[in-house]
Structure prediction request, 300 residues.
Amino acid sequence: MTHAWRRYRTGGGWSWMCALVLLVGWAVLGTVGLRAVPVAGQTTDDDGATTDEPGLIERYREARLRALMRRHLQQRDQRLPAHPIESLPTPTDSLFDMGGGEGSVASDDPSFPLEDVRPVQRQEKSWFRDRFADTNWAFLGETPGHAFLDTARTLDLRARLQEEFGAPTWTLADTSLKNPPVEPSQFEYWFVVNDSIPVQVMDPKGPEGRGLIVAVARSYRTQLRSLRDALLASLQRTDRAPHIDYYYNVRRERWYRTGFDGQSFFLEQIPRADVVPGQRAYLDTVRTSGSAPASDESFP
Prediction:
């Protein structure tokens, strides 16, 4: 008798199985009893039949059963069985073979034929506007492929554009600025590709954004992605050049000087009086410690 009682107290394979059977049986009996009579929380249709919505007591019993089962298994250092790993089908035998495609960097041999690229200078803005005044534009922002031109920070791309094509065609200082800007625009590069195709490259959200927006005549909208990659493919291999722009944060209603001084990117708040319409910002090569630029890692 003593040995039998000790075996019952120490437990074994049968003890927890019996407890499990009792708990399941108790829950089943409670559920059957509850479904016999509608309780609070259940509703009936016009013909008197109850709906499938569980009542408050039934939900309580189910939650308590799950809690008891979980505690029972935890006391015996056991866990519910895990589902086996399911292999997902892939186009190739290895995920490493799926490189390239839309997520890769622009190809060195883009499909769009670039025969001539003419950056439009600042003093040629009127000529460009007159020549392409009737153009209907198509725009390309961030693409689902997450290529370099989509994920790189705009202030980094701005420095590379400066090195590759020189100063932008348009900046915020080239407007009248009678009223604060309503969009966070910073710069625009205008091009004439193959002697007849107008292209615009601009920032999406100033220095705090990522990627670029590219616009082209709507008749080329189906080739816009390949045209962008062909035109800007060299940016990833291009060095950064010093530059400076004005930037207006619409949400904060604050003016800034932003750019790259040859070592670090910077974003400095300035008073509105420092912004002179028609006069672009001047990059001071001698920067004091009080206006130390933000590093690449700390810049937003």
